[in-house]
Amino acid sequence: MALLWETAAWQSQSGQLPGLKFMRTLWLCQATGGPFQYTGKNLHDAHQDLHITSEEFDEVGAEIARALDYFHVPEREKQEVLAAIVARKTEVVNG
Q1: Quick one: which of 28, 43, 51, 53 has the fewest CB in 10 Å?
Q2: CA–CA distance from 64 to each of 14, 15, 39, 76, 81 (Å)?
Q3: What pTM value is reported for the model?
């Protein structure tokens, strides 16, 4: 998980964090049937150098679930978001 935080810190310091957040938003909108199209790298290539483990992926999913709960996202929509993320686990995990 340390590498993920180091990468996030570097992206923030390098000015790339807004773009990263935008691309994540596009991906999530597309994955859940929204009107926007993700135009970034495929998920495998985008995460390959991060060597993300299954445990790290699961913790990120748990953090997303906590954020959705915090903002009182209805259960049906919360499950749609989480299902879209879990469906791509094999494309992200490579550590």
Answers
A1: 51
A2: 24, 23, 22, 15, 9
A3: 0.72
Phi, psi of 66 (to 5 degrees): -65, -40
Number of folded domains that form the chain: 1
Q: Which two tokens stand for residue 58?
A: 């699961």
How is residue 93 written in tokens? 């995990």
- Please name which of 34, 20, 28 lies closest in space to residue 67, comparing C-alpha atoms: 28
**CATH code of the domain covering residue 62:** 1.10.490.10
3-state helix, strand, coil in the chain (%, to 5): 70, 0, 30
**For residue 44, what are the domain limits?**
2-92
Model confidence pLDDT, tens digit, residues 10-40: 444 555 556 677 888 888 888 888 888 888 8
4-7 contact pairs (CB < 8 A, 24+): 4/50, 4/52, 4/56, 4/60, 7/50
